[in-house]
Amino acid sequence: MKTVIPLWDVPAVAVDGSDARFPVRRIYCVGRNYAGHAREMGDNPEREPPFFFMKPAEAIVTDGRMAYPPKTADLQHEVELVVALARGGREIPATGALDCVFGYAVGLDMTRRDVQAELKAKGRSWEMGKAFDASAPISPIVPAARIGHPNRGAISLKVNSQSRQHGDLADMIWSVAEIIANLSAYVALLPGDILFTGTPAGVGRVVRDDQIEGEIEGVGVLSVTIA
Ligand code: MN
C-alpha cells in the first residue's frame, strides 16, 4: 500500500513459546466484573449486563516499563485476565464462544482514577481516565491450545512485594464466553481483538519507581516498573 505518511508498526504482543507475535487490533475492557471491586467503587455488585469501554491498541506496554502519565495524581492498578481472539463474529452464542480464543495473558488496566471519578460525577465519558498512552501493560500470551480455558485460579497483584489485589477467576460475574457473547451483540468482533475482563477488589495507587507484579495462576506473571 502506498501511504501519504509513513506506515507505523502494528502493536503486537509476544506469544509464549513462539517467535511469532500476536497483532493487536482493538482493546475492549469490561467495566466491573468482580463483586468485590464493584463494591469498592460504590457500585451495585448485582448481575447487571456487562458494560464495555476501549483503549487504543497503541496503549499496550510489552517491555515492562510504563511511563507515569500526565494529568493525574492518582494512577491506579487493576490486574485482569486478558483474552486474545483468533476469530471474531457478531452475535456469537456463549456456547462455543471459547472457540474464538487464541490465548490468555495477564494485563493491567491502568487508570487515572481522579480523572475517571471527575468524569463519572459529571456523567461524561471515561475515556481520558482509561484510554491514555501506555495504559495497557500486558504479559506474553499463552496459547489456549496449551493451557485450555482458565475459569478458576488465583488472580493477584503486588506493589513493591506488598499484596494489594487478590481474587479468583471463578468470581468473575460474567465468564469469558458470556463476555464474548455480550460484546459481539454490540460490535462484530475481529481476529486480533483483545478483551480485558475486569479486576478483583484491592485496586490502589502507584507512584514513580513502584514495581508492580500481577499474576494469574496457570497464565503467567506480568512485571511492570512505573518509570
Ligand atoms: Mn478494569
Based on the model shown, name its key terms.
six-stranded mixed sheet; five-stranded mixed sheet; 18 strands; 32% strand; globular
Count of spatially separate domains: 1
**From the coordinates shown, what is the CATH architecture?**
Alpha-Beta Complex
DSSP strand count: 18
Q: What compounds are bound to the protein?
A: manganese (II) ion
**Highest CATH level, the class:** Alpha Beta
Low-pLDDT windows of residues: none
The share of residues in extended strands comes to 25-35%
- Write down the overall mean pLDDT: 96
The CATH superfamily turns out to be Fumarylacetoacetase-like, C-terminal domain
- The dominant shape is globular
Largest sheet: 6 strands, mixed
- Secondary-structure element pattern, one letter each: EEEHEEEEEEEHHEEHEEHEEEE
Task: Briefly note the CATH topology name.
Answer: Fumarylacetoacetate hydrolase, domain 2
Radius of gyration over C-alpha positions, nearest whole angstrom:
17 Å
In whole angstroms, the N-to-C terminal distance is 37 Å
Report the total helices: 5
Helix/strand-derived category reads: alpha+beta
Q: How do the strands line up in the largest sheet? A: 4-3-15-8-9-12
Helix share of residues? Answer: 10-25%
